[in-house]
Specification:
Blueprint: H1 18-29, E1 33-40, H2 43-50, E2 59-61, H3 65-74, E3 79-85, H4 102-114, E4 119-124, E5 137-142, E6 149-155, H5 156-173, E7 177-180, H6 187-197, E8 204-211, H7 218-224, H8 243-256, E9 260-264, H9 270-279, E10 284-288, H10 290-301, H11 307-321, E11 325-328, H12 330-339
Parallel strand pairs: 1-2, 1-3, 1-11, 3-4, 4-7, 7-8, 8-9, 9-10, 10-11
Antiparallel strand pairs: 5-6
Helix pairs in contact: 4-5, 5-6
This protein binds ligand PBG and zinc ion.
């Protein structure tokens, strides 16, 4: 027979109003929340994307950077994961490593204006900069325009070379972290060696270690790569049904020099979070993605759920499963709920 000793311990249950609960919670988790932000280089593309009415708080036009960052600072949001939406795409995704590219300039502006107030993590991938929407350089041929590529291949090592150029340009601009997300083999080892050789030893790496091939990305893909919203990334993203593969990728990335490791998405991957948490010592990050956001916002629009309560429970359960840090579009909603909304948000 088990003796339920713990039943004699009184649970610490707070019956306070939800707002008090929220503020206490925010206090305890503030430093570990990371807000993703898409910076648009082109005003027309920015305005058009606002028409989708979707994730608009996570989008900013590059010329409005300073105002938007002042508002973020006012809300006490200080950890940001930056993604760029360039004006031009080409087959190599060359704008991704342009020294004056949209993210490179964004980082320089933030540093000049706000010094070290923000902790900046920068996405390292080519899919938003190339014409295919794949996370790697592709080779292959097209039978006719608008037809799929035949025998298309992802060129792993050519991609590493580009990821290296992107990373160095971001380091030169002053990023705190690079966040390689293209899921190429050996990307962390390649980038950590390159950064060490190039004198950027202080810049840290948060790798997308177990980035699963998932339909939870579909809202993001629909508005980012309208023409090819069906993209099969299964040859390089993690198989969502193979726990061992996910764990192996996390362990490899740590061995290759990753400072933080990340699991993406969050909701259907909490088992992986909790197993990883028990195996590793480096900070474990989880990314709550666009499909998860859509579920929550959809429910709240139908007036079926209380958004604030759901976000708190969502984040608390991710913590319980093992997340040290949480990346989420919902971070802003949570802070706005606690502080009142500056004009340009929500
Ligand atoms: C690709 C990338 C993805 C997301 C951001 N960058 C996934 C993908 O297209 O495979 C998804 C983000 C989201 O759904 O919130 N590097
Ligand atoms: Zn990508």
């Amino acid at each position: 027979m088990l003796s339920f000793l713990s039943l004699s311990v009184r649970f610490n249950i707070s019956f306070g109003p939800l707002i008090k609960n929220l503020l206490t919670f925010l206090d305890s988790i503030q430093e570990d929340l990371i807000f993703p932000l898409f910076v648009y280089e082109d005003e027309h593309a920015y305005k058009q994307s606002l028409n989708s009415g979707y994730m608009n708080n996570s989008k900013v036009f590059s010329k409005n950077l300073i105002t938007r960052f002042e508002e973020l600072a006012q809300l006490k949001i200080s950890n940001l994961l930056l993604f760029g939406i360039p004006t031009k795409r080409d087959s190599l995704g060359s704008e991704s490593f342009n020294k004056n590219g949209v993210i490179q300039r964004t980082i320089q502006t933030i540093r000049e204006t706000f010094d070290k107030k923000f902790n900046i993590l920068s996405d390292v991938c080519v899919c938003q900069y190339n014409t295919s929407g794949h996370c790697g350089i592709t080779s292959g041929f097209q039978v006719a325009a608008n037809q799929p590529m035949n025998e298309m291949m992802i060129e792993n090592d050519k991609t590493l070379n580009i990821l290296g150029k992107i990373s160095l340009s971001l380091c030169e601009s002053g990023t705190d972290f690079i966040a390689p997300s293209s899921m190429m083999d050996g990307q962390v080892l390649y980038l950590s060696n390159l950064m060490e050789k190039s004198g950027f030893k202080k810049v840290k790496i948060m790798s997308y270690s177990a980035k699963h091939n998932s339909c939870l990305y579909s809202p993001f893909r629909n508005y980012n790569y309208h023409k090819n919203s069906f993209l099969d990334k299964s040859s390089y993203q993690s198989n969502f049904n193979n726990l061992r593969e996910s764990m192996r990728e996390i362990l490899y990335d740590i061995r290759e020099g990753s400072d933080w490791v990340m699991i993406k998405p969050s909701l259907w991957y909490m088992d992986i979070l909790s197993i990883a948490k028990n195996l590793i010592e480096v900070p474990l990050v989880v990314q709550n993605v666009s499909g998860e956001y859509a579920l929550l916002k959809g429910g709240s629009k139908l007036d079926k759920i209380d958004q604030r309560e759901w976000i708190i429970h969502y984040f608390k359960s991710l913590r319980r499963a093992g997340a040290d840090k949480i990346i989420s579009y919902l971070v802003l909603d949570l802070f706005v709920e606690s502080e009142g909304s500056p004009k340009s948000f929500i």
